[in-house]
Amino acid sequence: MSRLSRLANAVPALVLASPLHRLLSGRYALVEFAGRRTGVRYRTPVAYVRDGRRVLLSTDSPWWRNLIDRPEVRLRLRGGVVAGRARIVADEHEAALVLGALVRVVPGYRRPAGLAADGGRVSDEELLRAVTTGRRRSIEVTLADVR
Q1: Architecture of domain 3-143
Q2: 3-class DSSP state of 77
Q3: Cα–Cα distances in Å, from 18 out to 21, 42, 55?
Q4: How confident is the model at residue 57 (pLDDT cuts 50, 70, 90)?
Q5: DSSP letter at 52?
Q6: pTM
């Protein structure tokens, strides 16, 4: 991760981990995961949508690769911390549905996801193109015993 990326992630990460989390935590969470080779713990802010026991994410950053061998994650959601198990969504159509759900809830995520940011409906073809070209991955986290 570049210095610029670390800096850009540092401010939201600090806010999400603080009593001021309400400023961002309706649409953003912190995901904490272990590095696949070193086991070092990392955390990064992500846009999310919650669907019951599932939390849906998307990224074009390579951190998702850590989840292949070490799918256990912790999420800081709305000020609380919950454990979960991540799954990289392999099916292209399912991955497009995850991305579509995310941009409906977090419209500002359209631009970072490489989608048209005109405020209109994003087409199924555009969503599918976003998850089949480039590095974009959709991720589903199933939360552990949620109270």
Answers
A1: Roll (2.30)
A2: strand
A3: 6, 17, 21
A4: very high
A5: T
A6: 0.82
